[in-house]
């Protein structure tokens, strides 16, 4: 299996906010294509550019909303402009922490404003898995990882478990 350049969850780069996308050019579209490929090969629902070491506010998602409609798109400079007060706790994973899910509390509905790969401003409303995915990936652009969203106890367990997994594969 080819090695994919996805940063592990304890890489310090994942804790830094990414820079805004300013050039909506072929390089950006090539980066998004590459991210879709990496996400697909890793069988993920979302990926942020910083997870492959590129500190730009760019995410890709491929996930169904609650109506079963598949949403596969790239979002530049995504920003949550509405998050429902209603929340739900669901098992969440991250491509930077393979095969390990933890329960995270998220808003059940969000609205995200973003630019498409040509710099056109868009909004997307999400519920269900789409809402979770959008919140998780927008967090990445702000240097927040999902283990930051859970209790210290659970975070400690997740980190030590992950350290063991890494030692085994190293
Ligand atoms: Zn993630």
Q: Could you give the topology of this structure?
A:
Layout: H1 26-41, E1 46-48, E2 58-64, E3 70-83, E4 87-94, E5 97-107, E6 109-115, E7 121-127, H2 128-141, H3 152-169
Antiparallel strand pairs: 1-2, 2-3, 3-6, 4-5, 6-7
Residues 94-96, 136, 140 line the site of zinc ion.
Note down, in words, how this protein is organized.
With 170 residues, the protein is of the alpha+beta class. It has a single domain (12-169), classed as Peptide deformylase (Peptide Deformylase, Alpha-Beta Complex), CATH 3.90.45. Helices cover 28% and strands 34% of the residues. The chain has helices at 26-41, 128-141, 152-169; strands spanning 46-48, 58-64, 70-83, 87-94, 97-107, 109-115, 121-127. The strands form two sheets. A five-stranded antiparallel beta sheet has the order 1-2-3-6-7. A two-stranded antiparallel ribbon has the order 4-5. Strand 2 and strand 3 form a beta hairpin. Zinc ion (ZN) binds next to helix 2. The site of zinc ion has 5 residues, from helix 2.
């Amino acid at each position: 299996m080819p090695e994919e350049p996805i940063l592990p969850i304890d890489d310090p780069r994942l804790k830094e906010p990414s820079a805004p996308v300013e050039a909506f050019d072929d390089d950006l579209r090539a980066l998004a294509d590459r991210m879709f490929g990496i996400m697909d090969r890793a069988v993920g629902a979302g990926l942020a550019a910083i997870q492959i070491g590129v500190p730009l506010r760019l995410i890709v998602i491929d996930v169904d909303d609650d109506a079963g409609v598949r949403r596969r798109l790239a979002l530049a400079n995504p920003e949550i402009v509405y998050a429902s007060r209603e929340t739900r706790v669901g098992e969440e994973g991250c491509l930077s922490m393979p095969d390990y899910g933890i329960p995270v509390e998220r808003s059940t509905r969000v609205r995200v404003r973003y630019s498409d790969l040509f710099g056109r401003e868009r909004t997307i409303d999400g519920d269900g898995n789409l809402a979770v995915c959008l919140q998780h990936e927008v967090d990445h652009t702000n240097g927040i990882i999902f283990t930051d969203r859970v209790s210290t106890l659970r975070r400690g367990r997740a980190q030590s478990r992950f350290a063991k997994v890494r030692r085994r594969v190293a």
